[in-house]
Design goal:
With 377 residues, the protein is an alpha/beta fold. Helices cover 40% and strands 19% of the residues. It has helices at 10-15, 68-89, 110-121, 137-144, 163-182, 199-210, 222-232, 261-264, 284-291, 299-302, 305-311, 321-329, 331-345, 349-362, and strands spanning 3-5, 19-24, 31-37, 42-50, 56-63, 94-101, 127-131, 191-195, 214-218, 235-236, 246-252, 268-272, 295-296. The strands form two sheets. It has a seven-stranded mixed beta sheet with strand order 1-2-3-4-6-5-7, sandwiched between helices. Helix 8 (261-264) links the parallel strand 11 (246-252) and strand 12 (268-272). The structure holds 1,4-dihydronicotinamide adenine dinucleotide (NAI).
Length: 377
Amino acid sequence: MVDIPIADNDRITKRFPMLKIQKIEIEGFEDVVEGIDEETNLHCYIAVHSTKLGPALGGTRIYPYNNPEDALEDVTRLAKAMTKKSAIAEVGLGGGKSVIIADPRTQKNTSLLHSFAEVINYFQGNYISAEDIGSTTHDMAVMREVSPYISCLATKQSSGDPSRFTAWGVFRGIQATLNNLYGSHSLKGKTIAIQGLGHVGSKLADYLFWHGADLIVTDVDQKKLDHFKHTYSAKIVPPNEIFRVECDIFAPCAMGGVINPETIAHFNCKGIAGAANNQLLHRSDGELLFEKDILYAPDFIINAGGLINAAMEFEPGGYDPILSRNKTDHIYDILTNVFQISERENKSTSQVAEEIADHNLQQAVSKRIEPIDFAVF
Ligand code: NAI
């Protein structure tokens, strides 16, 4: 990995005199930069993995990483996953992601978000931000004051909070998984264990409750748990127990890497279908699940609802939530197809999903033809 300083830009120097943007060469990535602004305490990375099918859209994660190496590893893994997610969802977008090393509860403020938005401007539209863990629709509005390359704003033209569409896509993915396991997608009497009750997990719990599921939930934030116990009669378990509980579906909706040899040894579920990005710690963990007969709904397919909704902003006719919902519904069919190929070809579902994403990339399926007019938003 070699650091190459990029040329100073007059505008950056004027508005953010201390902001330094450095390009980092990483094999297989189109463009990765590190942004540091000592005045605003910004330390961020933005990774554009691929723009082959369109500009790279991916959320901004604000998280107190232990060190810069962990942040860089996370952003590159997440950006790669976005390329696959966009390719399978056929939204005419590429794969990218950004991370800010900060505690969103105590270190997030307007000047930090403004100087971060200036780093987004470096990409001139090849990277588009959205919300992710630690960032909100309100943060997007603050960033929009400095950069036009921001999606998921709470405006008429924009698509707003993506998490209700992500949660709806995960709900439909759980139905597809149940259908493959039991020959019916009914939730009645089925037990779903949710890890993480944030933007997505909380909405998913609501959809599942109204469709008759029994819930087991956990979160590291103890304050959230009481609400779920009383509102949904959910069984509460400590965070480490969620991997062991007997259930039909385990739905990871917190951080990545939760499917690994250690957790796989304890899983007591028939299927795994949740929102978290990069659920498999290693590629080989998808094979382990297949060997154990646990049906896995690949994360970059089942959690695409938010991306599908954000991409709808860029449609020529403008944003329409009905079209977003209908396209998100299609996650059920995409997963059903993956499950059928997996059975027919005796391959893990994660392997099948990788192959479909590679095919769509190579064949430029749904590649964006017209450039996005960012002035509209
Ligand atoms: P969030 O930050 O709103 O919620 C995450 C929740 O998980 C929080 O309540 C947090 O306390 C909890 N949590 C963190 N570590 C935990 C642990 N070890 N055990 C139990 N709970 C834990 O995030 P959001 O937006 O709900 O996203 C959840 C996951 O879904 C993330 O991996 C995110 O990247 C992914 N995702 C989210 C999308 C969206 O539209 N928000 C879109 C696609 C993926």
